[in-house]
User: Fold this.
Amino acid sequence: MKKTNTPIFFIGGKDRGLSVITCMLEMNENLVGGCILNEDIHEHEKKSEQIEKLLQSKKIPYLLTKSVKTKEQITFIKNRKPKLIVVVGWRSIIPPEVLSIPVFGCVAIHESLLPKYRGFAPVNWAVINGEKQTGTTLFFLDEGLDSGDIVAQKKIKISLYDSVWDVYKKTSSETLELFKQYLPLLKKNQAPRKKQSEEIATYTCARTPNDGLINWNNSTLGIYNLIRGLHYPYPGAFTYYKGKKLFIWRASIPTQRMYVGRIPGKIVSLIKRIGVEVLTGDGIILLEQVQFENQKKVNACEIISSIKDSLG
Assistant:
């Protein structure tokens, strides 16, 4: 199959980036180079090696990096002479020197319904905040933070039982569909463009693994959402038990009982082979699957053994 004419440069990584770059290669697009995301050490799922192998198999030049802001990186991209840059699964802002290279612009995917949830970790934050809906947006990059013109969007429902990984898989699927649908227009510089409304824009900050510390004074629903919002392969919500770091991987909201004597973090019930009930700021949460650092995941009853104990 003959390659299509429009030279495309790829910037990105992670699952979504892998699916998009695989799609472009299968469609025999004229992929002239790439900057592949070099993941952080704490990340469980790393896709950079798979993307590297794909590019190597096609003899496509690339850089493995966390940014595209150095003189050498910008020169590398410029020398590939792309007409279109595709950004998927990237974390840092693309500098103006890169945005100005392709005559058809730089397009990106953001896992929210822009202008809502501009910024970092939008899927995690949507689950943590208890949103019932999110989405994915194909848009043109500008010098702002996720503020460029929108090409198209797809809405995605979030159920109370979805983990962040469930939602991430939904957004990844919709990302690929959006990309395949609009790539022909993007390559002709004929894609639709709609300005974002600054009046309704919201933002999210970056998260680190330490931000997963559970505050037992928070509401039951808030703690439950934090746990599912940081589910594997993300670093995980955690607490401390007898001085050791304890990750909480699965929890649920049980039938509530009114405690007028309440100490948040206190163990109040051990349910064999099911889990451990813990007091929160306004109710009870059932911890089901937990894990001490560097040990295997187990039922909470296998670690927590007394209602005299507390977490935190």
